[in-house]
Amino acid sequence: MPPATLQAPAHITVLLRESVDALITDPAGTYVDGTFGRGGHTRLLLSRLDPQARVFGFDRDPQAIESARQLAAEDARFTPIHEPFSSMERELAARGLAQVTGVLLDLGVSSPQIDTPERGFSFRFDAPLDMRMDTTRGMTAADWLNTAAQEDIREIIHAYGEERFAARIAAAIAARRAVQPITRTGELAQIVAGAVKTREKGQDPATRTFQALRIFINRELEELEQVLMQAQRMIRPQGRLAVISFHSLEDRIVKQFLAPPRADASLRHLPVRGEVAGAARWADLARIKPGEAEVSANPRSRSAVLRVATRTEAAAPEAQ
Ligand SMILES: C[S@@+](CC[C@H](N)C(=O)[O-])C[C@H]1O[C@@H](n2cnc3c(N)ncnc32)[C@H](O)[C@@H]1O
Fold first, then answer.
1. What is the pLDDT of residues 149-182, one digit of tens each?
2. Where does S-adenosyl-L-methionine bind (predicted)?
3. Pocket residues: Cβ below 6 A from ligand 1
């Protein structure tokens, strides 16, 4: 395994121009970048906006927020917020904002997170098994694996990793931790490799298990569901939502959320079908994939899917 690097690797922003072009409908508007990272999208966005525009950048990673604070010192239109994006509505309300022009989400982890061994996201390095995006709060992957019920571990690896050997992996984890607690990424990768029977071509046997734990520890799918509902309430009519996702679990949530409401099949003989289904809250749906040049320059963009939609006039449901 390669030795730990001291310098955080850079992040190459995915679908940069496509998402920023799609997001801007008013150069003097107010925008949210829910996943600041190293600010690739935010910087291009700011370069395209007027002096009176505003941009709010969320990230729950302390290092990402450090980089956002540096940008805020250079550009007064930008405000960093060290919170999960699911607190967007509350944080913006606290700053006097009920509506925004556009929301961008570039989901998942950044290269500095995945490529910094001490963050514990990657099976490519041996390091403490952490996996928290926000290292200032919450439970680490090691804490959870050493205390959760074996059945819960199986379920998470199966549901979030779509891993068919989830039961064998959970059993191997339970057997190991009965002897000594699991604390390192290398250890977990080894346990999984011993439990997975057939390897997928070009994929490390630990890929699916690590993905599952990362999604669970960071509540990634719940976060996404919550922010989508908030974006629906906050984006003004004609404003845009742009979401880049990196795996099918995320993309399915976004796709279903943006889809027009469907009429109840049992009422399809009634002439009022459209009204029964309710008016669509999103229009002009687009799905964009990186081109060949981007994928060969940045292989991590390979699985990215950008979905863009324009908010209609239809009212959103009230917050629960
Ligand atoms: C793919 S990176 C974004 C990269 C960014 N667009 C850029 O160009 O530099 C995703 C970032 O979103 C953050 N993130 C993921 N889920 C989050 C959430 N629920 N709330 C806040 N930040 C989140 C991660 O910490 C990470 O820094």
1. 999 999 999 999 999 999 999 999 999 999 999 9
2. 39-41, 59, 85, 106, 113
3. 11, 13, 35, 37-41, 58-61, 64, 84-85, 106, 108-110, 133, 223
